[in-house]
Amino acid sequence: MRNISDTAMWAAVFRGWESKRPDALFRDPYAERLAGERGARIAREIKFGSQHTWSWIARTYAFDQVIEEHVAQGTDMIINLAAGLDTRPFRMTLPPSLSWVEIDLPGILDYKQEILANERPSCSLERIKLDLGDVNARRDVFGELARMGKKVLIVSEGLVVYLSREEVASLATDLARPLSFRNWVLDLQSPALLRLMQKKMGPQLEKAGALLKFGPEEGPDFFVPFGWKPVRVQSMLHVASRTKRLPLLMRPFAFFPDKFPKKGKRPWGAMCLFART
Description:
There is one protein chain. This protein has 277 residues and is an alpha/beta fold. It has one domain: Rossmann fold, CATH 3.40.50. Helices cover 43% and strands 17% of the residues. Helix 4 packs across helix 10.
């Protein structure tokens, strides 16, 4: 893994694997092409990720469900932060009137544009090359997009775990300012799961500058002071159990409560949907 953008190739590998199943929860015909040999090699080398494919698939499926629901309810713009190699504008059936905006670093967006150059998205698609760590630049972009969309859903899949508490708080505050930014869906880890991930995958990721940092003791309530209240929280364990993707040895853990464990003392990861307060 060369840099943090290579984690997008890694994620694409698992979407490709799921797509080949006869009972696939979703189909991404572009995933294998986008992952390439580098993505496949990363998946082989970071065995912990491949041993927990179910969590990656459950996350993608849960995000898909939220997106479909919000589009049906009149969302007119989706802003995908750290979009990486996500292909939802191509693989999902979306209304042509929907505006989909991808924001990420230039290198990964250029790579995706090259691979998908001959493909046509089902909705309006715009790509914005931006380092989200550039606070002033992102505020300008958020302000401009807020004037274009009336009912906006923010999507950030696989992003906040790589940020510090201060960086997440700053991003949450910036996203809460525009009145048109109504909802935000993200994935979240408990402190116990974060420590496990750091132990099992941290060394490989650190070499690429992709440090795993964020797993707040407050759980989803971390975001409340910054303008976001949790309205739906689904643990990946329970999503995987309901969709029959949980391995046999993991199934007893599905009897644990779906909600965030007290102070995050138990490994727990979830899809969290927030609404502006």
